[in-house]
Write the C-alpha cells for this entry.
Amino acid sequence: MPIRFFNTLSRELEDFAPLAPPRVKIYTCGPTVYNHAHIGNFRAYIFEDLLQRHLEARGYEVERVMNLTDVDDKTIRGSRAAGMPLEQFTQQFKQAFFDDLKTLRIKPASAFPAATEPRFLEKMIAMIRELERKGIAYQADDKSVYFRLSKFPDYGKLAHLNLDELRPTGRIRNDEYEKESIGDFALWKAWDAADGDVAWDSPWGRGRPGWHIECSAMATALLGPQLDIHCGGVDNIFPHHEAEIAQSECCTGQKFVQTWMHCAHLMVEGQKMSKSLGNFYTLRDLLAKGWSGREVRYALISVNYRLPLNFTFDGLAAARAALGRIDEWAARLADLAAKSSAPSAHPLAAQTDFESALDDDLNIAGALGHLFNLIRESNRLIDKNELSPADARALLARWQRMNAVLAFDPEAAEIPAEVLALAEARVAARTAKDWKKSDELRAQLEALGWQVKDTKEGQKITRR
Ligand SMILES: [Zn+2]
C-alpha cells in the first residue's frame, strides 16, 4: 500500500508522491516566541516529528524547516510589557523552546530561521515589491502595504470558504482575524507608537513585516518555490496558511504546497485549555509535577493527529504504565537475547503491520495497537519458553526500528538524583547485610514512586 495523507486542500486522502524523491521538503510553522510553548503547541510539533520519522523510516530524505516568529503583534506587546528590547525578550523563549524540543525528543529541524534575520527581512521586502510590481500589493493611506484580495480568486480554498458569500470589504492590519472579517491583509505594517523601537527601513518607510509574509519568505528562501508538505495546527489554516498561499503563488506563479496537513485541537480534561480555567499547561508545568518528557511525548503522540486529543492526568498515568510495559518487555527480550542459540527468524519479527498503519495517514493508534499485540504475543512465548535467544534478537531489532519512529526508550537521566542516591544507599545496606535498612530504603523509594527489583544482574529501579 502506498503512503497516504489527508490533504486539507482537497479534503481527501491522497497517495503521497514527493516532487523529487527521495527528497521531501517540509515546512512547519514554528512557535511565536513570546512565552513558553504550551502542550497544545507541542502536540502539533510531535505530530510533525512523527511525520518526519516515519518518512525517514520509509527511506525518504526529509528536509524540514521550522520558523521562529520573533516579531509580530504578540512579541512586540510582550516585550513592551516586560520593559525589554524585543531581541532580548524573544531570545529567552527561543532557548526555552529548543530545550523543550530536546525533552520531548523532537528531532531538530534542518533549519530554524527567525523572522528578524536580515536575509529573511530582505526576502520579505523583495516579495512585497514583486507583488506591488504585479499590482497585487498596494500602499494605503495609513502607509502600510496590503495584499489586494480581489487579485487572488483562490483565497479561501484551503479553509473552504466561499468568498462570494462573504463579500470581503476593508482592510485588516491585525495578524490574526476572524473568517467573518475577511479583507485585504497587511504585508508590511507602517510603524506606529505601539511598536516602540521595533522598525526596519523599507521602500514604504519604516515599519515591520506582517506575520504571514514571514512564513512565505522563509519557506521559499530555504526550500524553493514548491514544497511537498506544509504542516501546522488547524488554527493556522485561516488566515495564516491561506495568506501564505496567496503571497507565495502570486510571487512565483507556481503551486506552493502539494500536501497541507493540519493537526487537530488539544483539550484538557474535556475543556478548551485556557489560563482562566486553570487548565493551561506548558511542558515545564508538567515536568514540575513529576512527569517526564517521554511520558508527555507518549500522551501527545498516541492519538491520531486529525482527531481532537483530550489531554488528562489519567492519560498521562496510562502513558507511564504503557511505557513501563514496553521497558519491561524490551528488558526481557534483552535478557533472552544475551544467551546463545542457533539463528532463526520468528515470524513475529518479520511483521510490518506497525509501518503499514503509519502509511495510512499516520494511524498511530493502530500502530501502537500492533506494538502491544507484539508485546503480548512475545511475552506469552517467553513465558512458555518458546522464544529462542535468536528470536529475541530479531524482535529486539524490530523494536529498535519501531523505536526510531516512536523515540520511547528510557533514559537513565530520567531517574532523579535523589532516587539514585537512595538506590545506592540500598546497595550499600545490602552489601553490609543490613536488611532492615534495605527495606526502609525500599519503602522510601516506593513513596517517591519507584520500584526496586533485585535481579541476578543487580538492583533495578523502575517507575511504579
Ligand atoms: Zn507560518
Notes: Residues 29, 215, 240 surround zinc ion (CB under 6 Å). The mean pLDDT is 92. Residues 135 and 148 are 8 Å apart (CA to CA).
